[in-house]
Design goal:
Layout lengths: L21 H6 L27 H7 L16 H5 L15 H7 L6 H18 L5 H10 L7 E4 L7 E3 L13 E3 L2 H9 L1 H8 L14 E3 L17 H9 L7 E3 L8 H8 L1 H16 L3 E6 L6 H5 L10 H5 E7 L7 H9 L3 H4 L3 H10 L2 H9 L13 H4 L20 E4 L15 E5 L1 H10 L3 H10 L8 H4 L8 E8 L1 E15 L11 E3 L13 E3 L8 E6 L12 E2 L2 E6 L5 H11 L13 E7 L23 H11 L14 H6 L5
Parallel strand pairs: 1-5, 1-6, 6-7, 7-10, 8-11, 10-17
Antiparallel strand pairs: 2-3, 2-4, 8-9, 11-14, 11-16, 12-13, 15-16
Helix pairs in contact: 6-9, 7-8, 14-17
Organism: Cryptococcus deuterogattii Ram5
GO molecular function: O-acyltransferase activity
Protein name: Unplaced genomic scaffold supercont1.13, whole genome shotgun sequence
Length: about 675
């Protein structure tokens, strides 16, 4: 900076303040700036002038300060004020030695502090920035993506809104209002919880509507675009598809009543027949094969669509009508927390509540009531763990155990004995039993559920490995592509610590009072007429209270144990074992489960949420929020736009290692 002549009449303005002579400038330390600073934070660990504590002082110096202003009138940190040269009454006194002044200023403006501050600002900006339609605009500009294959979106369990169609007097206030998926649901629960539970429950014997109630799935794109206003589900996907040219003539959402078992979806609602007809109409109208995009489901039932229930599609129907299946965060081998929901009405979300919140929840909607409701939703049983110990591990080890494991996920349920302290030193083979593997946990859950639930599971679901070669070869003419897109890197509940309580009557008799029980006439073998009968003296309760042992939190354990939950890798809801095992191993190449050699592409997305965005931002991989993530939306648009070749294999988790430890033979 060139020297200036000293002003004859100093102005009170800071801009006219006298500057040091050339020699003073040469002696003056160079101010800390991002371009010339190389000093690191480690050199400023003490609270000295120029440290982090002086940022406030540094900012205040940028304001106009009158020449000869006494230092006592300037807001400074105490150690800064004491560091001023003695006798210098005016901080900007023209006579002050500028070397002393500069050394009293902050000596560090760490670039990392500056970058950190800018990062916070940028994060806040991106969190508040509207990202609607941006992915569609980007892929359209970069790759020329436009509407090509028509697409049908298939929502996951609990995603579709449910409407009341009952005309009974008690139901008329909610006629055609959603009892699931809007604020009306909250109002209905608060006004009459028992009536709402009755309406949402499925008849345990018929698997269809309970007497006096009629609930149906909402239809169209709005059925699952949002859950409650402001909490989007499929909305971002719909927006981006619309950006590249899609509308209701080429895009639809196949909403369904997720409470029903798949078989009864066809019996009551003709769901698969209607889905088949929609696919054929889209194929005819758009002159292209259809892409199916599902979220959080085991798989789209192509065989029932083509041939089941008298559909008459023929053996080549899938080949002629389906281009690809996009499997987003699919629960291909089940969900761990589904098992706890059926057993005790709990999951991680409930056991990690604040004690006050847990007390309120228990008083308003107890574990017993929640478990009863879950069991009255046969469709949710599709999330039951599949594959047994061959996939999920045995009592000694599991495929996804950490390398330094002190416990194993193979012990899916571990029961602490009553009275034993919940600390690591007290928990041993003598104080923890039984330890149940997945093979043992399934029957255990069924043993502690009503007979009606057991019959429903037996008639609708299978949890083992299909080994019938003849049956597996029926898929040999299916040549659609499969894309597995899911997240990882977020702690996910994988196995549990449990406690056993006293025995109690199961829910089939729990409403009876005293020594009386209800005799169900729907079973002819009972030989009764729905009357109330007296119980016999030896009619002991067979059900038992269970709850997740939230007292067990073991610091330093591997896998991590917190509030009775053992955590593993996943998307926050589904373990990576379920998300990816079939995609990278079971279906990869020409296997017994993929006799046609269908091409299977897997893309994993690392969970990288933005702290200020409540839904995680553009790089989230959370189970639900991933539907708004940029990488996922980009992949969906490329596949639907006829450029599936741009979606390539991308593995970031340890799923390949896990599958090598599984028993596939």
């Amino acid at each position: 900076m060139p020297p200036r002549k000293k002003a004859v009449n100093p102005s009170p303005s800071l801009l006219a303040s006298p500057l040091p002579s050339t020699s003073a400038v040469e002696r003056m330390p160079v101010p800390a700036t991002p371009s010339n600073l190389r000093q690191r934070r480690s050199q400023n660990t003490t609270k000295e002038p120029g440290g982090k504590d002086n940022v406030e002082f540094n900012v205040k110096l940028k304001k106009n300060i009158l020449v000869n202003t006494p230092s006592s009138r300037i807001m400074m940190k105490p150690h800064v004020k004491t560091s001023l040269p003695a006798g210098k009454n005016g901080f900007l006194d023209a006579r002050a030695d500028m070397k002393d002044v500069w050394t009293s200023l902050p000596t560090s403006l760490d670039p990392r502090d500056l970058v950190s501050n800018l990062t916070v600002i940028d994060t806040a900006r991106r969190a508040l920035e509207n990202r609607d339609f941006t992915v569609g605009e980007e892929v359209k500009a970069e790759f020329g993506i436009e509407k090509h294959h028509p697409i049908i979106l298939v929502p996951g369990i609990v995603s579709t809104g449910l409407e009341s169609w009952g005309t009974e007097v008690v139901a008329r206030n909610f006629f055609r209002k959603r009892l699931w998926g809007t604020s009306t649901m909250i109002r209905a629960v608060l006004s009459n919880k028992e009536r709402w539970v009755q309406a949402l429950s499925i008849d345990p014997e018929t698997g269809l509507d309970p007497p006096g109630f009629k609930i149906r799935a909402a239809q169209g794109l709005d059925a699952a675009s949002e859950f409650i206003q402001g909490y989007w589900i499929w909305q971002k996907v719909v927006e981006n598809l619309a950006t590249v040219g899609y509308d209701t003539n080429s895009m639809d959402l196949a909403a369904y009543d997720w409470r029903l078992a798949y078989y009864n979806l066809e019996i009551r609602d003709a769901y698969f027949t209607r889905l088949k007809n929609k696919i054929e109409m889209f194929h005819w109208h758009n002159k292209q094969k259809v892409v199916l995009c599902s979220h959080s489901m085991k798989w789209v039932e192509s065989d029932p669509i083509a041939n089941g229930f008298g559909g008459g599609g023929g053996s080549n129907w899938v080949e002629e009508h389906i281009e690809a299946w996009i499997n987003v965060a699919g629960s291909l081998l089940g969900v761990s927390k589904a098992m706890t929901a059926f057993l005790s009405g709990e999951m991680r979300d409930t056991v990690e509540l604040h004690p006050a919140g847990s007390w309120v929840l228990e008083k308003f909607f107890s574990r017993r009531e929640r478990a009863k409701l879950f069991r009255r939703w046969p469709g949710s049983s599709s999330m039951w763990l599949k594959g047994g110990n061959r996939i999920w591990g045995n009592e000694n080890h599991a495929p996804d155990d950490p390398e330094d494991a002190t416990d194993t996920h193979g012990r899916f349920f571990s029961f602490r004995h009553p009275g034993v302290p919940p600390d690591d030193k007290s928990l041993s083979e003598w104080t923890v039993s039984p330890n149940l593997t997945v093979n043992e946990a399934g029957p255990y859950v069924l043993t502690h559920t009503p007979p009606s639930f057991q019959r429903m599971m037996e008639s609708n679901y299978s949890q083992g490995f299909e080994t019938d070669v003849k049956k597996l070869k029926e898929n040999g003419k299916d040549h659609r592509k499969i894309y597995c897109l899911y997240g990882h890197g977020k702690e996910t509940e994988r196995s549990y610590w449990y406690m056993q309580g006293e025995y109690e009557e199961d829910e089939s008799r729990s409403d009876a009072e005293g020594d009386q029980a209800y005799c169900d006439a729907s079973d002819p073998s009972n030989g009764c007429d729905n009357s109330v009968i007296n119980r016999t003296a030896l009619d002991f309760p067979l059900a038992r209270r269970h709850w997740i042992d939230s007292a067990v939190t073991i610091k330093g354990s591997s896998p991590e144990v917190r509030s009775g939950v053992k955590f593993g890798d996943g998307d926050g809801t589904i373990p990576v074992v379920s998300l990816g095992s079939m995609c990278v191993k079971g279906w990869k190449g020409k296997t017994k489960w993929n006799p046609a050699g269908i091409e299977v592409i897997t893309q994993e997305y690392k969970h990288s949420p933005e702290g200020l965005d409540l839904r995680g931002g553009a790089q989230t991989a959370d189970h639900v929020d991933i539907l708004g993530a940029s990488p996922l939306n980009s992949a969906i648009l490329k596949i639907a736009g006829g450029r599936g070749d741009l979606v390539t294999e991308q593995i970031g988790s340890k799923i390949l290692e896990y599958t090598e430890r599984m028993d596939w033979d």
